[in-house]
Amino acid sequence: MELEDIYENIEKEDIKDTCEPQTQSRCQDEGKARKQRGSRCLVLITVSLGLICVLLLVFIILQHITITAERDLIKSYKNTVKEFNQTINSLQDNYTDLMTEKHQLQNNFSSLSQKNLELETRVKDLTAEKNQLQSNFNSLSQKKLELETEIRKLSDQGKGRLFMSTEAKSWSDSRQYCRDCGADLVIINTQEKQQLVSSLVKEIVWIGLSDIQQEGYMKWVDNSPLKQGFWEKNEPNDAAGNEDCIELNPAKPVLKNWNDIPCSDKRKCICDN
Ligand SMILES: [Ca+2]
Ligand SMILES: [Ca+2]
C-alpha cells in the first residue's frame, strides 16, 4: 500500500469520525486541505532524502578522490625513497672507489718522494764529482801550461831538438838511425826532461841508456853514468841475464816508466840533437 493512500484513508477515517452530517460540506474542505498539506510534506521529505543522497554521493566521490590522491602520493614517496636508497648505495660505492684511489695515490706520492730524495742525493754527489773533476782539470791545465813553458825554455836554451823514429828497430839499429840524422838516442838527466819525453810519446820507445858494456853499470850514449833513474817497480832486473837496453813506457807513471829489455827487441826511438 502506498503512503499517499494510507494518508488518504486516515484522513477519511478522521473525517468520518469527527464530522457531523450537517457539517459534511465543511469537513470535506478541511480534508482536502489536509490532503494538500500531506502531499507537500511528502514532496518535502522526498526532496530532502534526494538531497541527502546527492550529498552522500558527493562526499563519497570526494573521499574517493582524496584517497586516490593520497595513494598516488604514497606511491610517489615510495619511489622517491627507493631512488634515494639507490643514490646512497651508488655514492657509497663511489666513496669506496675514491678511498682506494686515494690510498694508491698516497703510495705513489711516497714512492715519488723517495725517488726525489735519491735523485737529490745523486745530484749532490754528481755536483761534488763535477767540482772535483773541474778542480782536476784546472790542475792539469796548469801543469800543461808549465810543461809548455818548459818546452819553450828548453827550445830557447838550444839544448837540442827531440824527434821520434818512424820504424821499430833494435836498440843498436835505432841508435844508428839517430846518428844518420845527425843526432843520438835521447839522454834524460833531469826530472823535467823525463816529464817532457813522456808527454811527447804515445808508445814504448828506446832511450839512450844501456849496460851493454858492463852488466849492472848503466851508461848514457855519451858515456856519462846514470845519476837518476825513473824505473818501473822491480826494474831493472836483467831478466834471463839478457836485458841490457832501456825502454820508456808512457803508459806507466811518468816518474816510474823505465825497464831493461833485450836489445834485439824492436821499438821506435827518441832522438835528440
Ligand atoms: Ca843488464
Ligand atoms: Ca827488465
From TrEMBL:
GO molecular function: carbohydrate binding
Statement: the UniProt record of this protein carries the keyword Transmembrane helix: yes
TM regions (residue ranges): 41-62
Pfam families linked to this entry: Lectin_C
Coiled-coil ranges (or none): 74-157
InterPro entries: C-type_lectin-like (IPR001304), C-type_lectin-like/link_sf (IPR016186), C-type_lectin/snaclec_domain (IPR050111), CD209-like_CTLD (IPR033989), CTDL_fold (IPR016187)
UniProt-listed SMART domains: CLECT
Domain C-type lectin, chain residue ranges per copy: 163-272
Entry keyword set: Coiled coil, Lectin, Membrane, Transmembrane, Transmembrane helix
Name the record gives this protein: C-type lectin domain-containing protein
